[in-house]
Amino acid sequence: MAFRTVVISNEAELHVQSGQLVAVQAQTVWIPLEDIAVLVLEHPRTNISAAALSLLAEQGVAVAVCDGKHMPTGLLLPHCRHSRQLAVTRQQLGQTLPQRKRLWQRIVRSKIENQAACLELLDLGGAAKLREYAAAVQSGDASGMEAAAARLYFRRLIPDATRRSPEGPGASLNYGYAILRAAVARALVGHGFYPAIGVHHDSQLNAFNLADDILEPYRPFADYLAVSRSVDVKVRTGRQTLVSVLQLSCSLQDRLHSILTAIEATASSLAKAMSEKDAALLAVPRLSAPCLVAELLPE
């Protein structure tokens, strides 16, 4: 199973040879394609062939490209890799409004609970109130608990900045979210979902509405990593730290998994929740102190 997030931060020529991604730079690096989950092309002078992109897609690798400020701006995903693609898409389209509202309720409740855990671990206060909000989430979040929780949460998390700011702490959070979003979109496509059709998000201009739905309970993991390490996204080491969010551990269905593996499990459980019309079957992550030990990956 793929487990690595590879970031190309130096000028490089990329090609595929003998089942491995070859990065020709000051020191040539060989990485087995089967190990790569997400490839981030950060340096503007990175060159990669169409043949290499095709092989990466066949292997199920999500490829993100970055702008001049190193922020991910585009995403290449595998196409129709699931054996029952049409069946899953029809199932996705057949979800009734009440079914989608119950799924969104579960997603929002998990997100707020993880936000509470994040504040608690950072000793920032406000966790008890957030848990009250989580318990009050209704079907479809009709009472707006997600928005109320966000106002409290970000005032405590980054009191001197705004989340959507292109500079400062907000930029670090957004970089972490982009890495998580790529992994979520990859997992959804791999399980036969059409990522533009969301449970709650419904923008006609967004090709990843469903990915943005499933991303929500995973956001606090990026928040914790960015704030606890005081990450500066403008510095290469800061971005490397944020990329490691996929290797953090989390609790899912009473077992510890890497975030990357948990995202795969969430995507798989979404298919089951939709087919059996039971939102409780959607597996959502839980953030807690023992879950924040990064897994050691081979060099």
Tags for this entry?
single chain, 299 residues, alpha/beta, Ribosomal Protein L15, Chain: K, domain 2, Four Helix Bundle (Hemerythrin (Met), subunit A), four-stranded mixed β-sheet, 10 helices, 10 strands, 43% helix
Question: Could you say how many structural domains there are in total?
Answer: 2
Mean pLDDT: 89
Helix content: 40-55%
Termini, distance in Å?
16 Å
The CATH class of the largest domain:
Mainly Alpha
Q: Can you tell me the CATH topology of the largest domain?
A: Four Helix Bundle (Hemerythrin (Met), subunit A)
Please count the beta strands (DSSP E, at least 2 residues each): 10
How would you write the strand order of the largest sheet? 1-5-7-8
Dominant shape: globular
Largest sheet report: 4 strands, mixed
Class per helix and strand makeup: alpha/beta
H/E element string?
A: EEEEEEHEEHHHHHHHHEEH
Gyration radius, in Å:
19 Å
The second-level CATH architecture of the largest domain is: Up-down Bundle
Quaternary state of this entry equals: single chain
CATH superfamily of the largest domain, please? CRISPR-associated endonuclease Cas1, C-terminal domain
